[in-house]
Amino acid sequence: MTTDRPDLVAPRADPTAPPGSTALLELHDVERSYGRRGPVLGPFDLAVEAGSATALVGRSGSGKSTLLDCAAGLVTVTRGSVRFQGRDIARLPEHRRAALRCEQFGFVFQDYTLIDALSVAENIELPRRLVRRPPDPRRVAEVAHSLGLGDLLHRSTADLSGGQRQRVAIARAVASDVRVLFADEPTGALDPITRDEVISVLLSPSVRASRAVLIATHDVDVAARTDRVLVIDGGRICAELLHPAPERVLAALRAVEVDR
Ligand SMILES: Nc1ncnc2c1ncn2[C@@H]1O[C@H](COP(=O)(O)OP(=O)(O)OP(=O)(O)O)[C@@H](O)[C@H]1O
User: Fold this and answer.
1) Which domain holds residue 30?
2) Residue 8 in domain
3) 74 Cβ below 6 A of ligand 1
4) Facing residues of 41 across strands?
5) Ligand 1 touching residue 189 (CB < 6 A)
6) Residue whose C-alpha is closest to residue 221's, from 186, 256, 255
7) Residue whose CA lies nearest to ligand 1 atom number 8
8) CA nearest 214: which of 108, 89, 77, 114?
9) Ligand 1 pocket test: which of 37, 65, 110, 253 has the largest number of ligand atoms within 8 Å of its C-beta?
10) Is residue 149 part of a domain?
11) Can you provide one Gene Ontology molecular function annotated for this UniProt record (predicted)?
12) CA angle centred on 189, ends 204 and 205, rounded to 5°
């Protein structure tokens, strides 16, 4: 890893948050391997705090999605621990991890993953239904209004534009008061103007309040809107940039290429 470049900041040696910090997620010595191949991810440490927004950038195949999936308990780690509010979710049986994901984690993907047979309100309500919690129309309306969807509640999501559909996906992800929001290429299918609108929603105070947001993206402009950009290469976190301009993110990505 290069640390002597002015455009790169070395990741903290041990970013695990100290006692009393607001770290929601702490990944320690994490690795993920498939079959007999060496690890496609890790080893690395990472702490994610409430109210923070972190972007993961790196070339295709560098491990961004695998990192998100391990942090969210969608993929099991082959080494290390993934602690959510102090509890190691990597050691939980799958059914308990699935329940925790439904209650505490929200997901936003490039392809929206909405159910077009349902209305906007019904899509937003879906996670609550899945964990058999009673409907909460007031909360649905409140979230929809805060994300500019107030007039669309009864429309089918099939009728909406890409930007509106992604807003619905974000509303669905946050309506049940999850603590961590995972977004994998959330703006990958959008034009630049709609992308800026959607990222503004994703990073708005109402979405971030007491919640951590983790975004995997190829878009340096999206990454530069977050507080912290982690450059991933070969499955490892090889640089950390705090509040960088897009040009700095691009330079860090180029530096990684040169060092390969
Ligand atoms: N189920 C799997 N089985 C085997 N290898 C896998 C599996 N999932 C991911 N990988 C490998 O892990 C590595 C990281 O993949 P990952 O999808 O995390 O990269 P990425 O940075 O998100 O890529 P992209 O930007 O193209 O989405 C790749 O080499 C990929 O081939």
Assistant:
1) 23-259
2) no
3) no
4) 32
5) no
6) 186
7) 66
8) 108
9) 65
10) yes
11) transmembrane transporter activity
12) 5
- Measured from the CB, is residue 62 less than 6 Å from ligand 1? yes
Structural domain contains residue 2: no
The total domain count for the chain is: 1
- How much is the pTM? 0.90
Cα 84 to averaged position of ligand 1 atoms, centre (Å): 24
Work out the angle at residue 125's Cα, subtended by the Cα atoms of residues 195 and 121, and round it to the nearest 5 degrees: 65
Query: Ligand 1 centroid to 89 CA: how many Å?
Result: 22
CATH of the domain at 106: 3.40.50.300
ipTM of predicted assembly, 2 dp: 0.98
The DSSP output letter for 237 is E
**Ligand 1 centroid distance, CA of 32 (Å):** 11
